């Protein structure tokens, strides 16, 4: 098992350096030996997502969830891919599942806010960004998105 951890660390370093293709080779080796390694499945999904291979990334996250239905990282990443595919309602369902497991998951709250914003539900989005910031006051996605949502609401109010 220590070998898999070492390989995961090596692949993570490659991802940090932007070598997602190289990292994918390592994740595939790990998964060949242990197809239910959730860390490798999730990290492979993230690498695929960074390469724009969204459907393949989604399959990795779904496999991780088949192994561990309560894996918050897999749920949030599944939502992120679904959001990227324009499937905002499905993404929101993933974030809600993650929030049922951990209601203080700032990432799930912020990402849910992004999907709600895409659906035009700016007030609901803003609530989620604020909740995320109450948990992590420096969470950049929530900070930036909250400011944008507030500007949109202000513009909509002044146009009426």
From TrEMBL:
<dbReference type="InterPro" id="IPR019734">
    <property type="entry name" value="TPR_rpt"/>
</dbReference>
<keyword id="KW-0802">TPR repeat</keyword>
<dbReference type="Pfam" id="PF13424">
    <property type="entry name" value="TPR_12"/>
</dbReference>
<protein>
    <submittedName>
        <fullName>TPR repeat-containing protein</fullName>
    </submittedName>
</protein>
<feature type="repeat" description="TPR">
    <location>
        <begin position="106"/>
        <end position="139"/>
    </location>
</feature>
<feature type="repeat" description="TPR">
    <location>
        <begin position="72"/>
        <end position="105"/>
    </location>
</feature>
<dbReference type="Pfam" id="PF13181">
    <property type="entry name" value="TPR_8"/>
</dbReference>
<dbReference type="InterPro" id="IPR051685">
    <property type="entry name" value="Ycf3/AcsC/BcsC/TPR_MFPF"/>
</dbReference>
<feature type="repeat" description="TPR">
    <location>
        <begin position="38"/>
        <end position="71"/>
    </location>
</feature>
<dbReference type="InterPro" id="IPR011990">
    <property type="entry name" value="TPR-like_helical_dom_sf"/>
</dbReference>
<keyword id="KW-0677">Repeat</keyword>
């Amino acid at each position: 098992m220590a070998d898999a951890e070492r390989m995961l660390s090596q692949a993570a370093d490659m991802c940090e350096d932007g070598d997602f293709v190289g990292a994918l080779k390592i994740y595939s080796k790990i998964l060949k030996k242990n197809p239910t390694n959730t860390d490798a499945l999730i990290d492979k999904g993230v690498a695929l997502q960074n390469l724009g291979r969204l459907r393949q990334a989604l399959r990795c996250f779904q496999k991780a969830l088949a192994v561990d239905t309560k894996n918050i990282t897999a749920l949030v990443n599944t939502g992120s891919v679904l959001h990227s595919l324009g499937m905002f309602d499905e993404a929101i369902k993933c974030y809600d599942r993650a929030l049922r497991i951990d209601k203080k998951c700032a990432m799930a709250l912020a990402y849910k806010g992004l999907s709600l914003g895409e659906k035009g539900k700016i007030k609901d989005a803003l609530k989620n960004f604020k909740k995320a910031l109450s948990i992590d006051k420096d969470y950049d996605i929530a900070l930036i998105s909250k400011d944008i949502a507030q500007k949109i609401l202000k513009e909509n109010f002044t146009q009426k």
